[in-house]
Design a protein that fits this description.
Elements (H helix, E strand, L loop, with lengths): L1 E3 L5 H11 L5 H6 L8 E6 L1 H7 L7 E7 L2 E8 L2 E8 L4 E6 L2 E6 L2 E6 L3 H20 L3
Antiparallel strand pairs: 1-5, 2-3, 2-8, 3-4, 4-5, 6-7, 7-8
């Protein structure tokens, strides 16, 4: 689900929390050694995301937040912040080249440039969370 998350809107926050869970507590964030990703450069994206990204001439970056049942891929366009809300059971991750990972969700995708050790370790953490989530909730 692609949604504008620029403003604090209670119905939107409740909808996000119902899909991917509420944010981790401070203690859980410390135990997991952080839940936010470094900044990734977006190489390519699906049409619905690309239509938002081409509105400004800046280099397109995104970051990813882990939640108990999914992730939020956040990016900015003009002065708005958008989020791609992806539950773990609909998340597909592919490594296309040695430096490029792709995140797929239904008909949307984002191809990210991953070159540093911190970025690789975050993707490993995200895949581990997805695996442990499927063990907790098989269906």
């Amino acid at each position: 689900m692609l949604i504008n998350i620029s403003y604090n809107d209670k119905p939107i926050e409740k909808k996000i929390d119902s899909i991917i869970g509420s944010p981790y507590s401070l203690i859980d964030r410390i135990k997991k050694n952080g839940i936010g990703s470094p900044r990734f450069k977006i190489n390519k994206s699906s049409d619905n995301i690309n239509n938002l990204l081409v509105l400004d001439k800046n280099i397109n970056y995104c970051n990813i937040e882990l939640r108990p049942k999914g992730i939020i891929v956040r990016f900015r366009s003009l002065l708005e912040t958008y989020g791609l809300i992806i539950p773990f059971y609909k998340l597909n991750i592919h490594k296309e080249k040695s430096y490029q990972y792709s995140i797929f969700y239904e008909s949307s995708f984002i191809k990210l440039d991953v070159r540093k050790d911190k970025e690789y370790s975050f993707f490993k953490k995200m895949m581990d969370e997805k695996a442990s989530s499927s063990l907790r909730n098989p269906f």
